Structures are given as C-alpha cells and as structure tokens.
Task: structure prediction
Amino acid sequence: MSALVELAQAHVVHKARSGGLFTRDRVYALTGADLAIAPGETVGVVGESGCGKSTLAKVLVGVERPTRGTVSFRGRDLWAMPPAERRRVVGGSTGMIFQDPSTALNRRLTVRQILRDPLDVHDRGTRAQRDERVRELMALVGLPRALAEALPGQLSGGQRQRVAIARALALDPDLVVADEPTSALDVSVRAQILNLLLDLKERLGLALVFVSHDIQTVRRMSDRVITMYLGRIVEESPAALVTDRARHPYTRALFSATPGLLDPIDPIPLAGPVPSATRPPSGCPFRTRCWKADGLCGREMPGFSAASSPGHRFRCHHPVQEDESTRDLVRRRAPMEAP
Ligand SMILES: Nc1ncnc2c1ncn2[C@@H]1O[C@H](COP(=O)(O)OP(=O)(O)OP(=O)(O)O)[C@@H](O)[C@H]1O
Result:
C-alpha cells in the first residue's frame, strides 16, 4: 500500500536555547528519520524525554519544516509545494492533538467557534453546512449539544480534550497525530479519551500517530511501535513483538523498566544519563549506555537491519537475539561497566 506520509532522511536541527543569543550550539532534535505511515495504521512513538518524539510528530503533520530531507504526502513533496497549496494539503489531510487542551484551545472562543474556525479558514461548504458539521463533530466526540456556547474554561479537562479532538477531525483528515493526548488529564478520564481515539480511528479509517511516555498504552493502542533515542529512530517493530522480542538493546531496556509488562524482572540498568542532544556521541548514539557497545559502535552508526517478521527493523551492530526473552537477557547479561 502506498504511504500516506513518508519521511526521507529528515533532520531537524535547532539553535540551542541554553547557549544565549549568539550561541553556535545546535540541538540535533531529529536525525536521518526514514518513516512511512500507511493509511489506517496506528504508529506509537516511545523514547525518553527529549529524544525527538514531538519533533517527529510535528514534522509528520507539516507543522515543522525539516532542516534537511523530505516529507511527502501521498507521494508529493510537501515543502516543494507553493505555500498556499501546502497549507491546503496539511490542513485538509492532517490533524494534531496536543498534550494540554487548556493551552491548545483559544480561551476566548466558544466550542462552536473553535470547531467552526478550521471550516471557515478552509472555506468548507455553506454557512448552514458548517453549522451542521459543528453539530456532527460534537456528536462524534460525545459532547452534548448544550456545550456549543461554552468557553473552554467552563469545561472539564476531558471535555476540553474532546473539543481538541473534534477540532483535529473538522476537515476530515487522513492522519491524526496525538502528542501525549492524555498526560494532562485526570487518570479517571484518560481511558475514556484513549477509547474515543481508538473508536474514531476505526470508524473514520484514520491513520494515527500516538506519542506518549506511557509505554503500556502505546503498545496497547498501536499496530507498530517506533523507538527513538537521541533524535534517531533506532527500531520499528510490530506492537505485538516490541515488549519481549525487540532487537535493539535500548528498546529492551525501555520495556524492561515498564511496570506490569514483564514483571517480575529487574529492569535492565543503563549506564549514566542520556547524553546531550547538542553533542551526541559519535557512531551509535546509544553506545555510551549500552552493555554491548564496542569500538565499532563508536565509529559507525549502524544502518537498518531487517528482523525476520515483516515490518520489524532495527539499527544495531550487536542486536539482542530474536529468541532471547528479556528475562533471559537480564539473567545472562554481563555486569554493566561504565564506559
Ligand atoms: N524550538 C527549539 N529550540 C531549541 N531546542 C529545541 C526546540 N524544540 C525542541 N528542542 C530540543 O530538541 C530535542 C527534542 O525535543 P522534543 O520535544 O522533540 O523531544 P520529546 O521526545 O518530545 O520530549 P518530551 O518527551 O520531553 O516531550 C530536545 O533536546 C529539545 O530540548
């Protein structure tokens, strides 16, 4: 099936925030990302804070322009399009849901105005059709009609996130990216919002990219899981295999440390903190914390290798064996030595 959105060697480099106005320091937020999202699939993105998950998400929906590399929508290079066309393509085919609906929604607009806005900007239908679409969107996300004239401040957190989801769906997108969509919500409403997203995805045939720190939820929601480390995609795995059959040592370590997935085991300990994204290590970025690293890892970033299952690939010179469970790995692993 042809890709809905495809990244080819996408890089995002920022000027470092911490280094002052004239700093030459650069943050390598995304490095050499190759990724294709197929229509209707759910792709989860995991990795520690600062590894580039949000940057990847923003590049996928055309909100952030890569410093280098291409983003193609249905085979067409997004950033080679004239700006008006790009806005039409991005606005009409993608939607984004952010972490905190209280800051993502304009506090001065009513729910009806918030949902009308994208329809007005993209000139969709007549006035009557737009009003009807607003009613339809509210019903789709389970918001009572009576809330149409409410301001975001008068809604609960869960209701606000429903408004944000409805807004993301207003133009009938093919792809929705949800960046930590439940982390600002009360635990009691998280499941409702996740179920709503899954239900909408099924009913509308959406492709969904789901970014979260909550690894259990990512695995449950996704068809495929992307692991990121220091700006790089280091593994892509079918969700069913990621917990205990991942090939990249980092994916194994991440999942071993997630309570409730592989209990009872001791998490695989990693040496030291994540290095700075301003000065990523040479070769494989994970090598400074990896118990398998050797000289080759310091010299060369490994390319992607295919695992035996379709859709499973990883970037590692010394991958974990496919038939080695994480429990066995923890038992047999040589004692960790600090690099
Ligand atoms: N506009 C910016 N200017 C400078 N640095 C930035 C900018 N945006 C992101 N970064 C840096 O780029 C790196 C990747 O950031 P990103 O937000 O994509 O990570 P993340 O994995 O989503 O993190 P988190 O899980 O904490 O949200 C981080 O080091 C971050 O500090």
